[in-house]
């Protein structure tokens, strides 16, 4: 046994929503085993992982009972200096967002070398050899070249591979992975999951894998631990948890997982009023270097599409396929290089910023991270009424409309005096949706608007999107890398690769009979694609 946690409780500061962050938690991870920990935000998953690593702020989160045994040594009895020796050498951690975990002003090779310098007596040449071996083991192309690159020069998948290489450089007995694939597209996600499984098997290490994605659980887990409100409520093998869950909370989580099989929408009627008409839209980024040299990136190439009222259209594709660039061109956050964008009969593609302002209320965007989308110093009321007041409504009229929309999205109008940090992630995203609807737009663009949410909260927000597109006869463009989400809510799906549309059509047609090889590859890479999840 690599890890055993016995009756662990970590106390929250006074004034928290409960007394303990985690309470009476007991679990274990054997050598050569992958144990997935699942649960909603606030269930205690990450607090458990950070307590094991000794990374929790002890003044705010205090372990008050229990043991954390790493190969029979109690980590709770170790001071900071001793824990530094354990981290990296005997236990490693892969964080959710590699861009914030890596030092942006330090080359990635040097960051891995720093670990070896602290924990080993290897000479510089031996350190570099070991680093290149680690990079090769995680299948990074051209390790010699990547050794001398900065994090921002790498793709998301490559940065995550650097984090994996760093955590495995000293071959620890325990690897903790905290949501390491959440922000990755399906093909990169499949590669990283396969890589973790392959390395885990070859090294014989134990892996504690924290995730809210049950597709990932189906793909790699040996055992599953379900946490709710800081407690372990159920534990079992992967097949038992996925197909025969016993606890009502586990059943609720699994029943919230979107299916990869699209529902039949042939009987649904959409309002055939054309809201958006995009014709031959292109966006090119480039710069001119010395002697005429330079780099040109065709982010979006000759894209044409139509959106109708009451219709929800999804765009899927890997990172770098042009999805978000297309969205930002559509709502004129960036200027297209060429092509036409017609919204409600008006071509906005060439309007200047000043000329565009009167029409801004007609198209709104909901971003991926609701916390960064809302001003932390403004109350919800101030955030919601600002837009309508800028377009002529009085404060009382704007406030009345805001209350009405908040009720529709499931937030009590009595909460309007609160600030963003006083809401959960799902509630903040509902507020961002309300802020878009309160402008009474013709078009809403949702850019990865549910990718960071738990499955249960995600289901609520998706149901909300389906409700409001019909209630307000909106055209909705939904950008996502989650093929399960797209399957369940999109009337039509557009597949993008390298800035171009390679396939589009009714969701059932694209999923059941994909024509382009890239679409087939995307669907084949979806984690847990062959698993039928238990339903309530």
Structure description:
- The chain starts with a strand and ends in an 11-residue tail after the last helix.
- It folds into three domains: 1-90 and 174-255, Rossmann fold (3-Layer(aba) Sandwich); 98-171, no CATH class; 274-525, P-loop containing nucleotide triphosphate hydrolases (Rossmann fold, 3-Layer(aba) Sandwich), CATH 3.40.50.
- By secondary structure, the protein is an alpha/beta fold.
- It contains 21 helices and 20 strands.
- It is 37% helix and 25% strand.
- The longest helix is centred in the middle third of the chain and has 18 residues, at 186-203.
What brief labels describe this structure?
alpha/beta, Rossmann fold, 21 helices, single chain
Short characterization:
Helix content is 37%, strand content 25%. It contains 21 helices and 20 strands.
Write the layout of secondary structure elements.
Elements: E1 3-11, E2 20-29, E3 34-38, H1 45-53, E4 62-70, E5 73-74, H2 80-86, E6 91-94, H3 98-101, H4 108-119, H5 124-137, H6 143-147, H7 156-168, E7 174-178, H8 186-203, E8 206-210, H9 214-220, E9 223-228, E10 231-237, H10 238-243, H11 248-255, E11 274-288, E12 294-308, E13 312-316, H12 323-330, E14 338-343, E15 346-347, H13 353-356, E16 363-366, H14 370-373, H15 380-390, H16 395-408, H17 425-437, E17 443-447, H18 455-471, E18 475-479, H19 483-489, E19 492-497, E20 500-506, H20 507-512, H21 517-525
Parallel strand pairs: 3-8, 3-9, 6-7, 7-8, 13-18, 13-19, 16-17, 17-18
Antiparallel strand pairs: 1-2, 1-4, 4-5, 9-10, 11-12, 11-14, 14-15, 19-20
Helix pairs in contact: 5-7, 7-8, 8-21, 15-16, 16-17, 17-18
